[in-house]
User: Fold this.
Amino acid sequence: MTTHTIIYTEVDEAPALATYSLLPILQAYTAMSGVTIEKKDISLAGRIIAAFPERLKPEQCQSDDLTELGQLCLLPHTNIIKLPNISASIPQLKDAITELQGQGYDIPDYPDDTISEADKEVQARYSKVLGSAVNPVLREGNSDRRAPAAVKRFGQKNPHRLMKPWPSDSKSRVAHMDNGDFYGSEKSMTFDKDCRVRIEFAGADGQTQVLKKELPLLAGEVVDTAVMNVAKLRAFFATEMAAAKKEGLLFSLHLKATMMKISDPIMFGHCVSVYYEDALTRHAEVMKGLGINVNNGFADIEARLEKLPEAQKEAIKSDITACYGKNCRLAMVDSRHGITNLHVPNNIIVDASMPVFIRDGGRMWGTDDELHDTIAAIPDRCYATIYQEVVKDCQKNGAFDPATMGSVANVGLMAQKAEEYGSHDKTFVAPGQGSIRLVSEDGNVLLEQAVETGDIFRCCQTKDEPIKDWVKLAVNRAREAGTPAIFWLDEKRAHDRELMAKVEKYLSEQDTTGLDIRIMGLVEAMGFSLERIRKGEDTISVTGNVLRDYLTDLFPILEIGTSAKMLSIVPLMNGGGLFETGAGGSAPKHVEQFLREGHLRWDSLGEFCALVPSFEHIYKTFGNEKARLIAKTLDQAIGKFLEKGKSPSRKVGELDTRGSHFYLALYWAESLAAQTEDSELAGRFAGVAKDLLENEGKIVAELKAAQGSPMDIGGYFHPDKEKTAAAMRPSATLNAIVDAI
Ligand SMILES: NC(=O)C1=CN([C@@H]2O[C@H](COP(=O)(O)OP(=O)(O)OC[C@H]3O[C@@H](n4cnc5c(N)ncnc54)[C@H](OP(=O)(O)O)[C@@H]3O)[C@@H](O)[C@H]2O)C=CC1
Ligand SMILES: O=C(O)CCC(=O)C(=O)O
Ligand SMILES: [Mg+2]
Assistant:
């Protein structure tokens, strides 16, 4: 029998733990269909190990699976199930390095300063591991995300209870800059032929410095540049902190330091240094000596102060305490442990943090472990305004009702590192006063931005083929769904104006008869979608890469309580399929709970849903009929799983991730046994279904018995495989049935 391969990604944290329980079931159920499910390691630890082969013992070495997957994504038959992985901030990267070193891996420290050539080489290798280093490599296609019909139906019938009311006198708001931001400075152009450009800094003193030697561009490519003026950014933070203090609101900051790994940690650092300015200025010399980098958050300050003699440390700490007294109150991430919004750059990731702010009635947690009205600072106007529109709507009309609200699906322009999310290698801190500019090979200045020392310059690329593909995908989705599809484009943004022209052109080449497709500004599009949501009507948002990310967390978190249940398909432009599991992250909080009390509440519904189109893709590509049946029966099993309420509970002692996998296996076996199209599969799974059902009580009891005490899996970023497998497969009865298939 020919075998067809699905690649299943090994990741980090909660979804990685869940994989230990789910993957053996998947492999057993698909083996008879000629589908093999193969693992590839894209975990943070795996990627670090793969970056330093020459320093490791042969048995410690790992292949560079990410690079291999990146190449596979360009081939027509590739089929990948992509689970969420850690996009590491520097503090997370350092923690992972320390853990690996403790396990005997001779991995170098992350160099804070790059003084020697050797430091530079190490940092260059780590820069490929840092931040969102995985998704942009694999996403060789645009994105199609929506709540599967069964999930939405279930969500309306069983509305989640996470939505909190908005106080009638809510004073919360989104704060953004009015000028000096990326939005205000953006310049954009479309190239009419293939060419190469360079990016250079031209100092006011007449010196020039090449920042990027060569940037190859394709005909039809849209390129933009923009600058964040840091003096204005700091003034904005100071103003909003003072306003929060005056109005009695909490202050919070929402950025994407993981995806925007160069620009956003710097913006985060400015916020930290404005808040703690008095203490940091007074002790500037000591802080410098300790190597403190505010971009890594208050946690870095706190940790490094520990190196000081007691008296000196206490003096600085007392000045820090004075900052809390003088300044506004900060929103807390973990009020019980005194962790604020400014602790580490990866704690508040805007795509997930703003929906929770809205779900919680426009409030965040204070030090008193209560919810309070809050100023949500999102400095750049490119996207901040959409959230203020939601805030305004909820202040006027109250919280949304998950039982009746409509749905917003998304078609997102993402392929080939589109827009801001591909800008890291073209983001620079201005080395002085002058300008940063894009220069053609023959020396013509194409786009130029005035900068002051420390300003953040950013250049983004959006290729033509992905835009064409995105428009086509939007038209197809609009036709399939029969609902309005709105292109969210802001005519005040230079980049969006270039895109609008292309959208209009490519739409005119498609058959759009009978479809309601419109282009709207962001705030208008949000208002339009919210109005429909409140009437229970569905809308498709067709957006660029950043809004794709933001909206596919926002709407699902409001509608169904989480974005983990989204169907997230990336039709690869060369014919393959990348099936992302959900739209959320790797849920670090769930791992904490698992380690503390042996209960994992990761919901694998995202994985289940992604597998259906993945099997269908095998059928469509290779005509594998058994794969078609595997998909059909899995879909039926998911329906029953939802109907019977077998998702993991949040409480220890109740059904957790492992138990939910058992029920999926049971319902899937029942569906396979009941179908009449393939007697071989039916015959094989009739016995499995019978065994699982007969042993239901025993299996559930065995799984429950494994809960209630702390777990030792030998690591956080790089757990011990055997220990983790044992922890995640604690039912001998279930294992025996699955392993015998
Ligand atoms: N595609 C990718 O690879 C992505 C990766 N990330 C990475 O994930 C990490 C964590 O990100 P963070 O922003 O904290 O977001 P997470 O989505 O991991 O967590 C936010 C909350 O969402 C809920 N949640 C998310 N997924 C599930 C699930 N499958 N089952 C049940 N509940 C779920 C949980 O809520 P509750 O606690 O209330 O149960 C969780 O605490 C970061 O390192 C980030 O870089 C983030 C987004 C996408
Ligand atoms: O890659 C990442 O860091 C996050 C991706 C993400 O949030 C998304 O695509 O929704
Ligand atoms: Mg996201």
Observations:
- The first helix runs from residue 13 to 30.
- DSSP finds 28 helices and 25 strands in the chain.
- Residues 173-182+230-400 form one domain.
- The radius of gyration is 26 Å.
